[in-house]
Amino acid sequence: MSRKNIMLAGLVTAAFTAAILIFAWRPATHEIAEAPGQPQPQVEKTMKKNALTQDVEMTDRLNKVDVSRHLRTLISKSHDSSTSDVAVYARKLQQEHGYISMLMWIDFRTNKTMTFKSSLPKGSELEQKQLQKHLKSAKAAVKGHQSYESPTFIIGSEKYYFIAQRDQKGTTAVIALINQKVLGRVTDHQLKNLRLIPYPKEGKYHVESVHADTLRDMTVKTGHDNENASHYYENEIVVRFPNGHLTEAQLKDISRDIHCKMPRKLGYAYIFRSSDMNYTQLKPYFTNNWHPLYSEPHYMYLTNDKVNENTGGNLPPNDLLFSTYQWNLPAIETELGWQLSKGSNDVIVAVVDTGVQANHPDLEGKLLAGYNAITNESSPDDDVGHGTHVAGIIGALINNSEGVAGISWYNKILPVKALDSTGAGTTYSVAEGIIWAADNGAKVINLSLGNYADSQFLHDAIRYAYDRDIVIVSAAGNDNTERPGYPAAYPEVLAVAATNASAKKASFSNFGDYIDVTAPGESIASTYPDSQYAALSGTSMASPHVAALAGLVRSLNPDLSNTEVMKLMTDQAIDLGTPGQDKYYGWGQVDIFKTLQAAGGEDVPLQMWPQRVRQQLDHLIQRIKHNP
């Protein structure tokens, strides 16, 4: 027998043996966590308000720590630099951080003061007196060799505070006026994200709301009503025809009948917009005259919140906010996981969301050019904050002494803007974003968005990406409901629910039989627009933990298919609920170290042996074909 035949026979025998063993093997179970109940709407609202308050308070702490670091850096640079160099750095600091409303540098050696952006905010006479009072207190503090932080005060409609620091030698000091608009942005964001208010508002976007099961019209009056509602554009319809395409003559006939311009086509489906017919009129027209494979509303999807390569390897990371605020990374064994994989430039993780701040200092060098599915023209800039936060969880720079640490050191992030400035997007924009990411190199796609309507149009886009061997990860939603949310509930998607710091179900997290895994999702610190940081809660924050893990797995073992990567993550999850998969935790909370340990090297877990043997067989057969 030839050496090649011996190798082939050995692999076949190994595959047969592994199949027998895998059939008999059963994983050990873990401690059973108490299944959480579903609270009444008022109780749920109170829990969500508490989560919002916690996010705002933590965001305030994150940014005060970050501001203090910037001021210390400015002071240290002034020791060995000329006055002009200090001015250049101070102006650059303000340009990159627009929330620094005023910056004052004092040199006690020369009694020289430089003030940058010296025009203070205007307010009432009483507000101006209060501002001057705090500024005077800041100057007195640094003159007395003390630091200073004022209480928050209001000028007009904005909140501010003064912060002042002096170096240990007593030679220089810095005073800054900080605009706290980020707190208002986080509040507004989380009111929508945690569904504490009706969202989107009826009528503002020319949308209708329907019950997700019956498609009967309903009005969303409270945040809790979002649980049963799906929103769609009232004068549009999505249609897929049996033969896939329409002739020019057929398009003209339809345009005449329903009074529309040329429809948009994406993938397999068309979107028609009538000038005077609504969905309830369009639906029977297409059903009776064209017998489509499907026709459905054009749904809206909403956010589901609640670099230069860094080669350093010291653990823990020196990122400013890591040790104190990033509880989420140790919770899923991230640091141990980094010993096995830190990611790869070759494995791209797409973030289909609201865009990403391109020049955030903690994402420098990590972002690819991306795409804007809303305008089809401009860059995917983030005008909401959601996408920047998601991107930071995946890949904020590590060991750069700045802000937060991401989960991946090296995976590139592909930002795709599919949600507009309100945080909402259509089936078309989300589907286009998914397809564009699939066609432009993504190996993992994160979808921190959702709706309760099962759209065949969106499912087509999901299948398109899945058929191209892409791992698709999606947030389950924040309505604390068992109702399946989409795209998370599609079988091709890994559905992620949220846990808190106690490894319990987050109060807002959706649940159900479709949940695959959980990940941290309560008060997660990450990057935010205007080069700031914010703590947000939501399954939107849980999902990128899992997408980042998929990126690490595919970096460590590129031979694994998307289904194998997904199975690894579920198989190696830490079981938090009843043994096996349950509706609150899926298979459990993801564990980065265990998953990477199972994915890499020769230490292949038993349940992965059939796939590994099959891969080796395929590779061997290919080599035999090419080298007979």
Automatic annotation (TrEMBL):
CDD domains named in the record: Peptidases_S8_Thermitase_like
Keywords attached to this entry: Hydrolase, Protease, Secreted, Serine protease
Subcellular location: Secreted
GO molecular function, one term: serine-type endopeptidase activity
InterPro entries noted in UniProt: Peptidase_S8/S53_dom, Peptidase_S8/S53_dom_sf, Peptidase_S8_Asp-AS, Peptidase_S8_His-AS, Peptidase_S8_Ser-AS, Peptidase_S8_subtilisin-like, Peptidase_S8_subtilisin-rel, Thermitase-like_dom
GO cellular component: extracellular region
PANTHER family for the chain: CEREVISIN-RELATED, PEPTIDASE S8
Protein's name according to its UniProt entry: Serine protease
Organism: Paenibacillus wynnii
